[in-house]
Design a protein that fits this description.
119 residues; 4 helices; 5 strands; Glutaredoxin; 24% strand
């Protein structure tokens, strides 16, 4: 189920991932929310599939917005962020990219990354 980026506000975090449809959509999500974790993924990617329930949990447990970008459907956007492998995670805080990680990370490490910017 896709979530409209505008259904949440900076004061009211979203409880499920936002599926990004293009660069303008991603920019509006990053601009509208304090902390955004962006997951560049592909449906055919095993580690991406393993990461999905972790990100779903983080969306409901943290104040961060979890944004998902399908690299096959958004090749130009993935290229603009230098995505060479998936999953690739970018963390934005106050509109600026502050972290970048390639590969699936454990839930506790992702939670610590997010909490470092939301406190």
């Amino acid at each position: 189920m896709a979530t409209d980026a505008h259904s949440g506000s900076p004061e009211q975090p979203l409880n499920e991932p936002v599926y990004i449809d293009g660069e303008d959509h991603l920019q509006s999500v990053v601009d509208d929310h304090g902390v955004v974790l962006v997951d560049f993924y592909a449906d055919w990617c095993g580690p991406c599939q393993m990461l999905e329930p972790v990100l779903d949990g983080l969306a409901s447990e943290t104040d961060a917005v979890i944004a998902k970008v399908d690299v096959d459907a958004n090749q130009q956007l993935a290229g603009a962020y230098g995505v060479r492998g998936v999953p690739m995670l970018l963390l934005f805080a106050d509109g600026e990219q502050v972290e970048q990680h390639t590969g699936a990370l454990p839930a506790d490490r992702l939670r610590d990354l997010i909490e470092g910017y939301t406190e």
